[in-house]
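ok trying again, last paste got cut off:
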Amino acid sequence: MNATTRVLIGLVLGALAGLALDAYDSAVAVKVADWIQPLGRLWLNALQMTVVPLVFALVVVGVNAASDAAASGRIARRALIVFVVLLTIGVTVAAVAAPMLYGLFTRHPSLAAALGGAVSAGTPSATQVGWADWLNGIVPSNALMAAAQSAMLPLVVFALFFGFAVSRIEAARRELLVTFFQAIADAMIVTVRWVLEAAPFGVFALILAVCARAGMHMIGALGVYVLVESTLYVMATLLMLLVAWLWGGESLRRYVPALVPAQIVAASTQSSLAALPAMLESAQRLGYPQRIAALVLPMAVSLCRLTSPVQYIASSCFIAWALGIDLGPAQLVAGAALAVVISLGAVSLPGQVSFLATNMPVAQAMGVPVGPLALMLAVDALPDAIGTAGNVTADITAVCVVTRQSTSDTA
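nice, full thing came through this time. structure:
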């Protein structure tokens, strides 16, 4: 039985137990929730303790990997720029649309109170800040203090500066530092895997406590999350078609049918890597030069995961909606910017490790509690087929744009 299935079982059993207690006696349900809640919080705290070192190490390593890729030639550099633009387009749509989509659904008052119990003490909450304060907070005056306070946006800004600085030093020392931070990231990933072994029990405790207080409203809220996330994936995917038409100069009449085989493989396997042969075939069918497709597509599989930053924003906006927190433009911009950086840096992370290591920093940067993320971990796999199809669409769109730009240079 794989890890995702075990976590889903823990979620279902915990939800059923909480609903049964609520139906039996609400007073008893609250007492049981109060007793079991600390166990879920303990597990959640164990996850949170790895976020700061893991994210810092991933950004430093990712910056240097991107620098190496950019140094390999003009096509690779152009591809990296296209990846960033496509990811920015996707996350911008998510940041604008997600709050509006969640606003279409009615939130029961008991949901905020119940979810509040799943939040660890000391978790920050979103507050409206002016643009001046937001800008001043981007660059940390004390990087160690930013790490201690889990201020993820300034910490990542420092990591970016540090990573670029490392890419400019003497090669032997650079290799030593990159190897050091890669080792830190690997050690943190091992730690997260150990903590995730207890995920079924942690999720069981958290969802039981929430359902014991909120009843079916929590189940309905998770359904809203899956629906909105899937909708955002579809919107981002359709935007890639528009990009291919406007920026790549493609005819949608021939472009869309050529994508279908790769999208089918992606949706059925839920793996962009498994769909790589089908993507290469689609690129060949569209007449893109093999030298460009063979270089850009493998890079895109790792770096251009369109729906990843969309998902980070969707999850943070869901928490804000469920808890009745209003997100201002500063929080949304901060989350969107960090989501793109995190997506580019979190290369080859395992599924559940990736969910927690990438969503927590964005949620913290947006000032929303990270506790509910543990509950969303179990259901996030449901829209994966749609998300993977979106990633494949973006990858081929990147080849389309790079091909047109490269052709313009030689024309």
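cool. The CA atoms of residues 131 and 330 lie 7 Å apart. The chain is about 80% helix and 0% strand.
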